[in-house]
Structure formats: C-alpha cells, structure tokens
Amino acid sequence: MKVPKESQGIGTSVLPILEKLPVLSRYARTRGWYYVISWLHRITGIGLAIALMAHIYSLHSNIHLPAGPLFVLIVWILSLFVGFHALNGGRLILYELFGRRGDEAMVRWVFGLSAAYAAMVGLLIVVKNQTASAFFFWLMTFFAGAVAAFVVDSRTAKNRHSLFWKLQRISGSFLLMTVPAYLLFSHLNPGLTDGAPTFIVRLQNIFVRVVTLALAVSALYHAGYGLYSIAADYVSSRTVRASVTLLVLAVFAVFAVLAFRLILSV
Q1: Would you say 88 and 110 are in contact if contact means Cβ atoms under 8 Å apart?
Q2: 58: burial class by Cβ within 10 Å (0-12, 13-18, 19+)?
Q3: Percentage of the chain surpassing pLDDT 70?
Q4: Domain positions in the chain
Q5: Angle, CA of 187, 190 and 192, to the nearest 5°
Q6: What is the CATH number of domain 5-264?
Q7: Side-chain half-sphere exposure of 69, counting CA atoms within 13 A
Q8: Fewer C-beta neighbours within 10 Å, C or N terminus of the chain?
Q9: 124 alpha-carbon distance from chain centroid
C-alpha cells in the first residue's frame, strides 16, 4: 500500500497495525489517515455519549449489571474508546489553541497511550484486589482537570469562536483528566458490578459529590454539543438541523435531570 504523504510521519509503529484493518486502510488510500483518525474520534464520541446515557440510567434505576465475560469485554472495549477519544481530543486542543503541529509524533502517542490505558484497565479488571481512597483519588484528579480547564480557558478568552465552542474545549480539557480516571476508579475495589449502591456510598463524601456533579455536567454538555456538531457538519437543511438540535437538547436535559437527582439526593 502506498502511504499518503500527510500520513508518512505517523510512523512504522502505528501504520502496520492500521493497514491490517481492511475498512480503515481502504479509506486511508483515498482520504488519508488523518481523515480516518477524525472519523474514529467521532465514532468513539458517539459511542461514549451512548455509554454515558446508559450509565446514568442504570445508576438512577439501580439496575444490577451482569458480571459475565461479555459485559467485561464491552467494558474493556469502552476503555479503548475513552483513551483514544480523550487523548486525540487533547491533540486537537494543542493544535487549535496552542499551534502545536507535530501531528506525526502526537498521533503515535495517542495510539500508544490509548493501548497502554486499555492494558491498565484490563489489568485492574483481572486482578480485582486494588483499593484507593476516594477522597485522595478525586482530589488529585479534580486538581489536574481544573488546571487543564483553566489553561484552555485562558487560551480561549480572546478567541472569536462562540461561547458554546469555547465551553466544548474547556469541558474537553477537564474530561481529558477526569473521565479516564473515573473509569479506572470504577475498577478499583470493591469492583465494577456493585453499581448504584457503591456509587451512592462514595457520594456520601461531600467533595466526591461535588467532583461527580462537575464531571456529570461537563460530560453531558460535551457529549450533547459533540452530537450537535456532527449533525451540523452533515445536515444542510436548517429545519432538520434545528430539529436535531432540539432533540439533542431534550434528550440530554432528561439525562441531566436524572444525574442531578441521583447525585443531589444522596
């Protein structure tokens, strides 16, 4: 396969793996690898938006999730989505707000760190004997997320983009730190099958509750705006676009109410 010029720098450590995937390699031959990566970002974003809504609903309804191999596999695949979407989002923020090109090296880091993150989640799923202080864990995580959000906010202050666009980047920088941490923490003792009871116990700590609320608000906004952006890119009709916008607002408003009721009622 002849590698497009713009993707030659992605490196031999990534391309041999991607070239074995027939669908991706076919699009790469005609559109380039960065087109493929852009679509992977959107696909993982849609998947994470669905997972977010399912997670909120299951916790709110106190649904006991199965602990079988299929469910564990789905959870592990979700870690791949989280790692790639978060890291590639960070790469895009570096490009948009800080002018850092270096895409070739950063793409290698995105794929490499995504694989490392998924491996770490898989190890925690298999071992099942780890413990962590909720307060200390979320104190460090919230601090890292707040610093990232502050830095991005300072860069967007003089940007001419809309407030909604800026909030998308700010929330994304906060989620870059907190969502991977949330998934990791869910696999620390007492385990991933405890569901709502364990979640409610953790919320007894006021600080953890505040962090969880900030995480829920950021994730819901980021997911909703992301779905709207995807629709806006491919829907030319203003009427249909307005309908999609109203639908997204309605759906995420419902899930925001469910999340707030769960978190604030503890």
Answers
A1: yes
A2: middle
A3: 81
A4: 5-264
A5: 40
A6: 1.20.1300
A7: 0
A8: N
A9: 19
Amino acid at 109: W
- C-alpha to C-alpha distance for 204 and 222, rounded to whole angstroms: 26
pTM of the model as a whole? 0.86
CB atoms within 10 A of CB 115: 14
- pLDDT at residue 197 in the model: 65
For 127-196, what is the HEC assignment? Answer: HCCCCCCHHHHHHHHHHHHHHHHHHHHHHHCCCCCCHHHHHHHHHHHHHHHHHHHHHHHHCCCCCCCCHH
> What is the torsional sign of CA 202, 206, 207, 209?
positive
> DSSP letter string over 58-126?
HHHTT-----SHHHHHHHHHHHHHHHHHHHHHHHHHHHHHH----HHHHHHHHHHHHHHHHHHHHHHHH
Residues 135-155 have pLDDT tens digits of 899 999 999 999 999 999 999
Q: Interior CA angle at 91 toward 103 and 13, to 5°? A: 50
User: What single letter denotes the amino acid at residue 31?
Assistant: R
SS3 for 14?
A: coil
pLDDT digits (tens, 9 = 90+) for 44-56: 999 999 999 999 9
> Cis before residue 190, ω within 30 degrees of 0?
yes
Name the DSSP class of 251: H
